[in-house]
Amino acid sequence: MADPVVDASPSPAFLRVLDPVLRTLLRSRLAPWLGGFALLTFSGRRTGRSYQAVVTFHELDGQVYVVTPRPWRVNFTGGAPLRMRHAGVEVPGTGALETDPEVVAGVVSRLLAKGEPARAFALRIPDGHRVTAADMRATDRAIVRFVPSP
Q1: How far apart are CA 47 and CA 36, in angstroms?
Q2: Exposure pattern of 9-35 as b/e (b: 16+ CB <10 Å)?
Q3: What's the alpha-carbon Rg for the chain, to the nearest Å?
Q4: Do residues 75 and 45 make contact, with C-beta atoms less than 8 angstroms apart?
């Protein structure tokens, strides 16, 4: 039996230090050098409070995806407005949450085949392992798909 796919998310303590630094850098002139990082700004679905999340994003077939286990993702259930800041440019749009493990596994598999490293999803995947819906369920991964406003 193959080793399981493992959540390799950074520790909360590390994120408490790194996130404010990345938020500042993503709003600065250095943003174009931050590659696959983006800053999402959105409102809480119950409180209406404004939130920001530093994410890694992935492009596939003309779509932009964020693969995440983070709880803020529920704000995009049924779709919700957001602003995505990447490379110094802020783009308004809509985020839509996808939690179906089959769909998530399919997108992650295609991104891995395209050359994205497993660490870009905060996962540790054994060599030769094919990502499954069970892996996505076990690591609590979901997708927020970003659709830019016209």
Answers
A1: 29
A2: beeeeeeeeeeeebbebbeeeebeebe
A3: 15
A4: yes
Give buried/exposed letters for 93-117 (b at 16+ CB in 10 A, else e). bebebbeebeebbebbeebbeeebe
Q: Are 104 and 67 in contact (CB under 8 A)?
A: yes
Q: Which amino acid is at 38?
A: A
CA separation for the pair 88, 80 (Å, rounded): 22
Tell me the C-alpha to C-alpha distance, in Å, between residue 60 and each of 66, 94, 98, 109, 115. Answer: 11, 17, 15, 11, 11
Average pLDDT over residues 105-120: 96
pLDDT reported for residue 150: 85
**pLDDT tens per residue, range 61-97:** 999 999 999 999 999 999 999 999 999 999 999 999 9
